[in-house]
Give the backbone structure.
Amino acid sequence: MATDATGSVNGPAGAARLRVLDPDAWDSWYDVLLRAFGGVPEAAEERELWRALTEADRSLGAWDGEECVGTAGAFSFRLTVPGGTSVPAAGVTMVSVAATHRRRGVLTGMMARQLADVRSWGWPLAVLTASEPEIYGRFGYGIGTRQLNLEADTRRVRLAVPPGTDDVRLRYAAPGEVLARCEALYARRVPLRAGMVERLPGWDRLGVLDPESEREGASPLQCVVAERDGEIVGYTRFHVKPKWEHAVADGTVIARDVEALDPAAYAALWRFLFDIDLTSRLIAHQRPVDDPLLHLVSDVRRLKPRERDALHVRLVDVGQALAARTYQGPVDVVLDVEDAFCPWNTGRWRLSGDTKGATCERTTEPADLALSVRELGAAYLGGVTLASLAGAGRVRELRGGALAEASVGFGPGGLAPWLPHGF
């Protein structure tokens, strides 16, 4: 099953035509997406935000006659890569196929068309967060970052905070009142960690979106900022979910965001969250795997850390993508890349680079390593080592020593890669 020259997706039960989203058809298109994810209506404010954020000219619909049966969108992100620079990346989003049209090649057709479009835009990368991780490997996406979900018993965990923590002033603020200043702080953090995205205008609203239907009994969104000399140096957004057992308080703090510019402000915010009155439990999702909080607590096991996949990475242009990042040691290897879904990437590429920069060009020289574009995506941000992939048989060493050299070079060069939110 494939997409033909007319934009049709050919399958055993007929054809669905792909076309760029007409903004006037957004409601029909979005309703297909909602139905695919369970059919629960969204709050009006959430629906209108996604309407505003949708880039119609970068979104596709699959249509069977007048009926929309598939959706796929892309956001115009810039993604931080090792070395601290940012590169254009398509933030793949809102992907769905109507249950009546599964197994007809609709998804494959949309993915093929989308990646061809991304290539035509001159963007080297596509990234996504997956509802079902097994889906996207066949399209060349590798799991490039992971995240921690934490659940702490705050009655039994103590924090050892660094000097200066007591000098940080904390105050409550309405989330919307300090939104612009918090977003400016986030923007300063973006270049420091691979995997973070420069948020587009309007994306700040996602951080304070707070429909009552999704609180599950918790409080409206609250915000506390950390200040030093009148400057905001950190912030946290959170909910509190009260609970009483036999007249004993047993509430839960749900931390949505914790960002800070320095260790003292970071520790002050976490200490505040751990010490909120009438609570005994703290939940925090989508934290980095090397979160400094792990080194502040007295008993890391009582955080109950659970790791899961986060950002899936796809190299759309192998040469451009590999040349866009830096490498943590000298690398000079020839990669034999397999990419059945985007054949323009298939072949041998010579990658030469170090901490100052890199080049990656086509070559006819003998290959040192053989791998698929999926493995390149997994290793690209430095969160997965090529040596680990080789241990699973996913990377083959063809020249002795090449694997060790490349595995070190592909490291993140600092903090582990992390995506702090979905899209």
